[in-house]
Amino acid sequence: MVLHSGKTKRPHRRGGSNPLNGGADPAFAATLTPPHHKLAEDPLPADTALQLVRDELMLDGNARLNLATFVTTWMEPQARELMAECVDKNMIDKDEYPQTAELERRCVNILADLWHAPDPDAIIGCSTTGSSEACMLAGMALKRRWSKLGRSGRPNLVMGANVQVCWEKFCEYWEVEPRLVPMEGDRFHLTADVAVEHCDENTIGVVAILGSTFDGSYEPVAEIAAALDALQERTGWDIPVHVDGASGAMIAPFLDPELEWDFRLPRVASINTSGHKYGLVYPGVGWVVWRDRDALPSELVFNVNYLGGDMPTFALNFSRPGAEVAAQYYTFVRLGREGFRAVQQASRDVAMHLAGRIEALGQFRLLTRGDQLPVFAFTTAPDVTAFDVFDVSRRLRERGWLVPAYTFPPNRTELAVLRVVCRNGFTHDLADLLIEDLTRLLPELERQPRPIVDPAVSTAFHH
Ligand SMILES: Cc1ncc(COP(=O)(O)O)c(C=O)c1O
User: Fold this and answer.
1) SS3 of 287, please?
2) For helices 98-114 and 323-360, angle between their N-to-C axes, nearest 10 degrees
């Protein structure tokens, strides 16, 4: 046990009581600091341990004021209750928890239906810890499919420089050349012509993002697919598309039903999404679905029998909590199509309203307006010289708002933006409070002689 003095000492056993059985004792707790580097010798009463850890966690930010993250920060109490009931279930143990496995299967079916899979019996999919793992699995399938073509040369993956870091990780970990198409002028994401220019016979696939982490814009998946159709006609190269729908695959089906970005396009081989983003579940759950078994080579799927039954598994990790999968199924049962539409529309309405109000302030220029993902990016207007986006981010943080400022990737690294992610639970009322705070601090920022924050130490929050 570590006392405030820094000395390690056995805890004071009051009246010889056993701390394993003890109750809360604030006076006792006040003399303690929890271990930082090694285990203490003795146990603490459960209530004291709870109080110590809970007190430290007070220093974490307020998740509801976090406009940086895409990840769910609010669920209904009923969902929390369900998750608490499922914390002890191991997702991988499908033999012991067959009904959790069944809920996972139903979620995959529901997603495949939302994404217009042409043959529901042919699809194959699974839950993951998030989109990053889902993207790794999808990328591995693309690479394996390419390697079966027997081509020599180094495999490459074509994508915009605006991809989330998980794709760069995938390329590094699985030895695939990342062909990152740079931004150019006001083109902030991948487009069909530049995607095709970067392809060759060793391209394992093209990643199209719905929508971009940097500014919330949808990449033109249908145009990219059509350009690849034309490329195949010219060259014979049959290059599949993977859609990284980390956020948008749970927005577009409800708010943009006419937009063709999914399995309606025959070239789309696989799609991922984050259940814990606009799937409206607490972290961490993601999903990946393949169009058919041709898109997921069978040798990547392992069958294990040591948990009782004979179970197929395709995942990077093994044990994983089942609670998030149950919570995902809960949101599907609870909301239905219309409920999802209403929730996502509310987020889009707030995003567009807030973007409009920020534009009306006069000191900012919008790059996106929140009309695709409920996300928008903005920068300072050209005539603003006293402050920059990093100053705005820092000052908003003083009020508890987390609005990240970051620079864009090549070839627009000189462009720095602020980004606001509107999620379920971020209401018009909170948006108005944010505008009030921003309006209040702008005159102070304008009195600065010049921007004062070093971008190198600013937040760069890209997930
Ligand atoms: C487009 C995109 N892909 C992948 C990811 C990674 O998602 P996760 O945090 O679920 O692993 C993100 C996260 O923001 C993203 O925006």
Assistant:
1) strand
2) 40
What SS3 state is found at 413?
Answer: coil
Which residue has the CA at smallest separation from atom 14 of ligand 1?
463
List pLDDT tens digits, range 274-333: 999 999 999 999 999 999 989 998 888 877 665 665 556 788 888 888 999 999 999 999
The rounded distance, in Å, linking the Cα atoms of 191 and 181 is 9
CA distances, 417 to each of 188, 322, 368, 376, 392 (Å): 12, 38, 11, 10, 10
From ligand 1's centre to the CA of 71, what distance in Å?
9
Q: Atom 13, ligand 1: which residue's CA is nearest?
A: 463
| 421 in contact with ligand 1, CB cutoff 6 A | no
Least Cα distance to 420 among 67, 45, 41, 25 occurs for 67
CA of 129 to the centre of ligand 1 (A): 11
Q: State the closest ligand 1 atom to the C-alpha of 463, by its place in the atom list counted from 1.
A: 14
Q: Which of 278, 287, 272 is nearest to 339 (CA)?
A: 278
Beta bridge partners of 268: 241
Tell me the domains of the chain and their CATH numbers. 2-57 (no CATH), 77-331 (3.40.640.10), 348-457 (3.90.1150.160)
Note the pTM of the prediction, 2 decimals.
0.92
